[in-house]
Specification:
Layout (H helix, E strand, L loop, with lengths): L5 H9 L1 E2 L22 H16 L9 E9 L3 H4 L2 H9 L2 E7 L2 H6 L7 E3 L3 H13 L5 E3 L2 E10 H9 L3 E3 L11 E4 L1 H9 L40 H14 L8 H16 L8 H5 L4 H4 L3 E4 H15 L6 E6 L1 E2 L1 E2 L3 E3 L2 H12 L1 H9 L3 E2 L10 H9 L12 E2 L5 H12 L15
Parallel strand pairs: 2-3, 2-4, 8-10, 11-15
Antiparallel strand pairs: 1-2, 4-13, 5-13, 6-9, 6-10, 6-12, 6-14, 7-8
Length: about 425
């Protein structure tokens, strides 16, 4: 737990002078939070700049202060790096400076001197809150929004899976429109991977001849599988591992470390044939080279929806080339903002309750929780998508609700499948090994 001097406490309470609206949230190299005093000439120029800002109609008093929040985040940094979110936070007196890393890295490395950490899923959050409690420093958690794990792909691949009886379009598609969303039969999909099926021979014609994806004008002799980000770092990859394990082991989860190791070995080849994983699979998926590099990518729903919302806004139509596969066994991730300081607690409450910030989260594709934070609602997101001419996913309540293994057992499976270094215990207040 970090200790603070009286000077640094005063700095944290008052923050920094409000000089710029919409300052970037991406973290530069860490620096001291000690108060910086301005020479008289610079101070006068600062005051003049503040008057100009007021004359231009920006809200805020000339000497209103902004608190800089130090944060470690994974994919949910997408939200805080959004310019509109930054603008809204500045209006409330916050600037967020981000250090990006995978959720597992957040949980296993030091987080002293940070106000918040925001891993993308519950396993990493449980590691952090459990350690904090053991050290005598309980942390407050906030769950402002959720985003399911999904598989991003391209229309030709989704249609090939449909022809092979592995996927089907979700309901709710308007007459004459092409579907954006498909349900993926996870058991059949994993069986195709285990059997070594290739995209070129996945489908069959009326005479029983294998034709595969070639009928859609694409040649791909690679195995049918989904690619993840680095399983040793990314929550999406670890969650997908748990999902695959649940389905492949007949809707069961391991109960002991030995059983977890056996489960992991059984499914290792289903995940490790993907080649070298990238740090952020969504970046590859939305790139021009994505179709040839990563035809099926494990991502979050909000990343796909944010891409479609931006496409509709920028071009007047959705990106009909990219579509989404919803696994028939589903697990909704629970990103948790963990407040480590009073300032972090204030920020957590703000983004969980402020209507403008909640609406912006929805505009970025997140499923925003209700006012009490008791449940995630998709009604507002569905209305928003329809209002903007974008198909909304209609999910079935009949889909299997997958269960993740116990945290220590999931960690064991991640280590086996990814050949990761086991996270060693960290002394209280010390450096992560």
């Amino acid at each position: 737990m970090a200790t603070h001097t009286a000077d640094s406490d005063r700095t944290r309470r008052h923050g920094e002078p409000r000089l710029r609206v919409g300052a970037p949230a991406v973290a530069p190299p860490r620096r001291s939070r000690a108060r910086r005093f301005l020479p008289p000439v610079v101070a006068a120029a600062t005051a003049l700049s503040a008057i100009v800002v007021l004359a231009q109609g920006h809200a805020g008093l000339p000497f209103e202060r902004i608190v800089t929040i130090e944060a470690k985040m994974a994919s949910k940094a997408d939200y805080f790096e959004d310019p509109e979110v930054q603008r809204l936070l500045v209006r409330h007196g916050f600037r967020v400076r981000i250090t990006r890393m995978g959720s597992r890295g957040i949980a296993t490395q030091r987080y002293d001197d940070y106000d918040i950490v925001f891993p993308s899923g519950q396993p990493a959050a449980d590691l952090i809150t459990g350690r904090r409690a053991a050290e005598g420093h309980p942390a407050t958690t906030y769950r402002p929004f959720v985003s399911p794990i999904v598989l991003g792909t391209y229309r030709e691949y989704a249609e090939t899976l449909r022809e092979a009886g592995i996927a089907r379009p979700l309901p709710g598609v308007a007459a004459g429109a092409e579907p954006l969303y498909y349900s993926l039969d996870m058991r059949r999909f994993l069986r195709a991977s285990a059997d070594g099926r290739r995209w070129d021979d996945l489908g069959t014609d009326r005479d029983g001849h294998r034709v595969g994806i070639g009928r859609h004008g694409i040649h791909n002799g690679n195995k049918v599988l989904a690619q993840t980000s680095d399983i040793c770092q990314a929550n999406s990859a670890g969650t997908y591992l748990g999902l695959v394990s649940y389905v492949w082991n007949h809707d069961d989860i391991p109960q002991t470390p030995a059983q977890a190791a056996r489960f992991a070995e059984r499914i290792r080849l289903l995940l490790n044939d993907q080649g070298m994983p990238s740090s952020e699979k969504n970046e590859t998926y939305v790139s021009a080279e994505g179709k040839s590099i990563s035809p099926i990518a494990v991502i979050y729903e909000h990343q796909f929806l944010a891409h479609q919302i931006a496409a509709r806004s920028g071009t007047g139509h959705v990106d009909g080339e990219r579509v989404l596969l919803y696994p028939s066994a589903r697990f909704v991730t629970e990103p948790q903002l963990i407040a480590l300081t009073p300032e972090g607690d204030r920020l957590g409450r703000l983004i969980s309750t402020d209507p403008a910030l909640q609406r912006r989260a929805m505009e970025l594709g997140f499923r925003v929780r209700d006012a009490e934070g008791a449940s995630a609602t998709s009604d507002a997101l569905t209305r928003f998508l329809k209002e903007h001419g974008i198909q909304a996913p209609v999910l079935s309540d009949d889909d299997t609700k997958a269960v993740l293994p116990r945290l220590d057992l999931l960690e064991r499976m991640i280590e086996v499948v990814g050949d990761c270094d086991a996270p060693a215990p960290r002394p209280a207040g010390g450096e992560a090994p």
